[in-house]
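Re: export button greyed out
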Amino acid sequence: MSSEHIDEVSGISTTGHEWDGIRELNNPLPRWWVITFYITVAWAVAYTIAYPAWPMLSSATKGVLGYSSRNAVKIELAAAEAAKGKYVAAIQQKTVSEIAADDALREFAVAAGGATFKVNCVQCHGSGAQGSKGFPNLNDDDWLWGGTTEQIQQTIAHGIRFASDPDTRQSEMPPFGDIITPEQIAQVGAYVASLSGKVQDASLIEPGAKVFAENCVACHGDNAKGNKELGAPNLTDAIWLYAPGETAIAVQVRAPKHGVMPAWIRRLGETKVKELAVYVHSLGGGE
Amino acid sequence: MHVLDKTQMERLEAKAVNSAKTRQPLYAPRKKIFPKRASGSFRRFKWLVMAITLGIYYLMPWLRWDRGPFAPDQAVLIDLANRRFYVFFIEIWPQEFYYVAGLLMMAGIGLFLITSTVGRAWCGYTCPQTVWVDLFLVVERAIEGDRNARMKLDAGRWTARKLVLRVSKHAIWLVIAAATGGAWILYFADAPTLIGDVFNGTAASVAYVTIAVLTATTYTFGGLMREQVCTYMCPWPRIQAAMLDENSLTVTYNDWRGEPRSRHAKKVQAAGQPVGDCVDCNACVAVCPMGIDIRDGQQLECITCALCLDACDGVMNKLGKERGLISYATLSDYNANMAVATAGGSGPVNPSLVRTADSTFSARLAHFHIRKIFRPRTFFYMGAWTAVGLALIYSLLTRDRLEINVLHDRNPQFVTLSDGSIRNGYTVKLLNMIPEPRTIVVTMQGLQGAEMSVVGSDLPAARFFAIAVEPDRLNMLKVFVRQPAGEVRHAAQTFKFRVEDRASFESDEYTATFNAPEIAR
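Workaround output, generated via the alternate export path:
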């Protein structure tokens, strides 16, 4: 700015900034504005002293109030734990059926169990507990090892065919490919499939029933309804862990697949296992 | 060494940034304003508006309205904790908040309408800032006296009297401010209970914080900052320009009859020079709460409170001249009259041109006519305002007070049960939106052979069930719908959940989808 410019109309000098002939008057600021401005400056300085602010070489200044967001989270988590305390204590005391019978406790257990399920169980059973081939659907009313709250608790706590847990649920269907002939396998496959649906060659059913009576009834029962003590599935219903149909059944008879479920008691503890049991039982198929 | 003459020395074009000549103060102290008490028809109207608006604000929470035993009996209540809003006979749930949005639209369009017809009437009469400043000025005048007494007191040294007057003035201001903050919180809880809690110290801390904040802002804005809020902080004065046009009424100083102003009219007249009606008494400036001179023309700071109009009319009455030297006038009328007074802009204002020989006003002068209010622009605003209003009323009269919302389980979408039947899960929300308990019947329509069962209830699986819902509450149920394998027709069938209140014949429906595996067809 080479020389001062005075606005003709107002008689006030301008800042020298000009936009298309429009000049900015160099009016002083209102006092309240300036005071507010200084207050904000003072506030900013005080804030950086009171709270963590200035970056140093390896960390930042701590602030005289000793605030840290990590600490704040810790305090909030502790408060949340404390709020859950009375429910958790009650869940520790009571059996799963007692928990399921108490409205407030059940609601809490279902919410808590749902959260635990999302972290630990969805990998195999799916996010909606709908399962997939080889992994049981937990929403339905078909239970290999029993669907009461206690039975579910036992399964979750100790797992299935989980070698390192002595209390694990144990059962193993022998590979019948070594025991009976391929013809017999095809026959028993047709018989089992006929219990819940149609088969292509009805003539196989009768000999299949005989094969079944000789080899399978020990575990699956005379009427093929299964045995929950042994984890032997009900073969007359519409639910198939691997696949429906005589071919798939024959494949399973010849060389059975066996899923393994880990024991969760050591990893999750008694309370979480109870909560999980109540949650799984609440999905709609619980007995 | 060759020595330069001082005239040969080059002069650099440099100037200190803070050179004494151009140095400015960093801040401008506020110029204190001491508005004089005005009297006249506009002042009376403003008293009336003030009484009505303050009355509504302070007394509304105390109005009772009987809604039966299951709802609060406060006429206007914003129940944030329960998320219910009560306005007399209307109860609004959060999902019906569009009523509030509609009212805001009406307020906005209404503001456009008012501004385009009568200028900044909102600023001048009903804006809370204006009303509270007016109230604070009443207190100031009652304690310190009118303009001259206040100016004297302000300029004078600190004495015991000045101290007493100032302390009592600020004390009363603070009481008013606290009452303002106190009244605000009463809209959010049962007023008689809350006021008791506030005084015995058991109210929620948010109540005290709100009172404190509103006390501080009311005291600061109404008592200390006053006109600065309008001039510096409020965006509305800046938006005015787009709202006003040449047919909007604004407070106008009529130069065409006032100029040339003179304090010594007779002397000037005797000298044969033209003289206008303005006697330059500054009455208009003295009463102005914004501290401006309306004779400088329409300006940003003017809130069109029309107190200058009252002041000037008083002076004109005393002088035996026609009222209306300052008047509500439109720019087009003003320009027309200026053209008359300046003989088409060919010279300075000559007041004799607007008068006839017997010194009454010339017939050529333009006067405001009520027709000017009705122009396309105001019709448009009026139409939009009415349309929104009618839409709101229609929607209010036909809205549902019994609703059903259904959320289909997404994961899993269906479950095959051991007997081959298919089960779908739904979260069913029943909304009883009246403050009375009801028994609602939920029925299934469509989906052959299927039955519903409510999780956690003893109701047998059936195609309908009756359930009691609490007054003014949402009842959330988990419902399983199960269809036998043989009845499943498609992978995605639709059916209806229907809710009915068999006492009032209110009903609502929700069309839901029932999913099944492809294989089950």
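DSSP finds 16 helices and 15 strands in chain B. The button fix ships in the next patch.
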